[in-house]
Amino acid sequence: MTYRIDRVGIVGAGTMGGGIAAHLANIGIPVTLLDIVPPNLSDAEKHNPAARNKIVNSLYDRMTKARPANLGRADRGDLITVGNLEDDFEMLADCDWIIEVIIEQLAPKQALMERLEAIRKPRAIVSSNTSGIPIGQIAAGRSAEFRAHFLGTHFFNPPRYLKLLEIIPTADTAPEVVEYMKRFGSETLGKGVVVCKDTPNFIGNRFFAVASSYGLEHALQNGYTIPEVDAITGPTIGRPKTATYRLLDLVGLDVMAHVNNNLYDAVPQDEYRETLRPERTSALMTAMLDKKWLGNKVGQGFYKEQRVNGAREFWTLNPATMEYEATPKIRFESIGAVRNVEDLGQRLRKLLGFDDRAAQYARDLLYYGFAYAAYVAPEIAYKLSDVDDAMRWGFSHEAGPFEIWDMLGVAETAAKMEAAGLTVAPWVKEMLATGHDCFYKNGSVYDFETKTYRAKEADKHIILVKDLRAAGQTVEHNDSASLHDMGDGVALYEFHAKMNVIDQDIIDMAFKALERLDSDFDALVIGNNGDHFCAGANLFAVGVAAASGHFDALDKMIRALQTATFQLRHAPKPVVTAPHQMALGGGVEMAMAGWEAVADHEVYMGLVEFGVGLIPAGGGCKEIVRRKVNPTMRAANADVLPPLQEAFEQIALAKVGASAWEARSMGYLTPQDTIVMNSDHRLARAKQRALQLVAAGARPPEIEQIYAAGRDALYALKLGVKSLHWGGFASEHDAKIAGKLAYVLTGGDLSAPAWVDPWYILDLEREAFLSLLGEEKTRERMMHMLQTGKPLRN
């Protein structure tokens, strides 16, 4: 008998409990969310349900208002039922999985498990989200059947966005429960799952706490400033832009202090634990905690926002004076030299070849991390790759410590570590002595227990472009795009330009893809493994061409893009798009240029051209009218203005959907499109869907005529724009762009509504786009966006 999770109960509605509830609701799983009854209720309040649910309702409201948003769409909150632990505890009896997220104290957790055992249904899985209490102790005293279905499930905050899920079985957890939760975590929750040993703080937080504490103390000991450290420890060494101190402000200094203090007491055997309480860092943290400078949640920590001449600046703390100072521009020769090196291994090797302060700090930080990772891995992890996975998925590092050590050369780096006074773990020395010179080799990973390589567990749901390329499956290639053979008769049309912006090479490859689809393949997938699906058109190239007066060339390029998206949409064989993360402007047009889409739940879609003084011209205007206006106008006596106004405002306000569910409500995704929770599975799912369409003998989407509302609707939209202009809410140029957008969406100055050929609208949008490129104010907006990353209102 297999397991199935149709309803989840969560006990504890705080930051983590509410975040987990929202993530489950986003997926479509109903959740029962309970918390305590407020203490010290009056006699009247004791019989008032609203008063008894005051805490859980307050926490639920906080969850819905959090930024970044917990809910993928506001109505997802309807799947969460709230209650309290006295009146509504029996509601947990219907749940297939119950998650404990209460106070980090053993006794209350054990008491809760005793209550749960009395009401949970047989085979219901129970888990704890604790990060500081041994999982085995929490279920102590419970029945064998309860313990067989009990384990740790440690989410990272915020649960919607951070990929890591640590699963911690106990000695009593049934193997089939562990396997089911691994699969459920990966395929349904969309997480990167790591199975951990039941040790304090598990893998991610154990390694991060010690390694980051070393980095803080080392910086203070050697006179590095806060902005210097953040300039060194961000993307240059494969870490997020939050780097070190910005990350601590985000997490909260009180949280870090709590984790470090608890971990220090919990690992008396750890030879590195003194790093958790270093002299200078502890003194600084104590002073900041006393002043309540806890980070972003109170408006100041290592950084503080200041207003200077009306502009917002972030000043940094000077630990010596405990005053905030304007943040200087930080420049290091080494960082400047490696800034444009894309490959992490090459970048780090080049960086560490320098001997300036940045290279010295990066070297010391990385080498210490390698030493601690090797020391602690056998204690906390079943395999060293889990340490790397935890750092990538939990902390958004580009690579984990063993992966980076491999990039730098294990033997060479080990010698340098020892020369620097660091201890290299005995198992690493033994590995090198027996002729094993790296941690990863040919899809296998070194096993510190068997002292040999074991094949790394492959996820059949993951397709990586680099693997297709390495296997010689690339059939067409240029500087910005490629076509790969995915196998089973399916081709992959991949963008790989910077930010995957659309240029002539990407357009050319679209036609190559259509040509090869016709002759060599049964179906086509459009997608990639980049950071973003497509951030729109190459604004720089378009702006330079416009400034140079090359309008004939621009007209030819835009017409080619329109033709490509149109032909992909109506290709004779299935085309499935696979958008993820940013799909903006032309990226939305490409995402809509398929029979269906298989979208990552974290996809941010919007036709945002208005922000740079333009309107969509790769088929976006035509397609949004087809998707929003056409369905309404097929009904008798329908009013065109509501859907038309909605389409107009969506483009004119450059609205971006904050999730796949919002993108669906905006028409960029359809109800037939698939939303996947695990972005790593997106390309495989898109291939699978394409093959299903082939097997079903599906026919291409019919070419629809487009409803053009005509002159009356055009004037109605223009009147609204004029009102905004007269009221000072829109500039003269805003009004000009909006007028051209209205003209395209209504089909222009038609005397009466009509159903028109789609190319009628496509021609209008291209003409409007080109005319706006001729406007100086539009070119100013484009240049401002390129220089600052922000829109200009002129």
From TrEMBL:
Its EC number is 1.1.1.35. InterPro entries: 3-OHacyl-CoA_DH_NAD-bd, 3HC_DH_C, 6-PGluconate_DH-like_C_sf, ClpP/crotonase-like_dom_sf, Enoyl-CoA_hydra/iso, NAD(P)-bd_dom_sf. GO terms for biological process: fatty acid beta-oxidation. It is an enzyme of class 1 (oxidoreductase). Pathway: Lipid metabolism; fatty acid beta-oxidation. Residues 8-199 form the 3-hydroxyacyl-CoA dehydrogenase NAD binding domain. It comes from the Bacteria. SUPFAM superfamilies: 6-phosphogluconate dehydrogenase C-terminal domain-like (SSF48179), ClpP/crotonase (SSF52096), NAD(P)-binding Rossmann-fold domains (SSF51735). Keywords: Fatty acid metabolism, Lipid degradation, Lipid metabolism, NAD, Oxidoreductase. One of its GO terms (molecular function) is (3S)-3-hydroxyacyl-CoA dehydrogenase (NAD+) activity. Belongs to the 3-hydroxyacyl-CoA dehydrogenase family. This is 3-hydroxyacyl-CoA dehydrogenase. It comes from Candidatus Promineifilum breve. The lineage of its organism: Bacteria, Bacillati, Chloroflexota, Ardenticatenia, Candidatus Promineifilales.
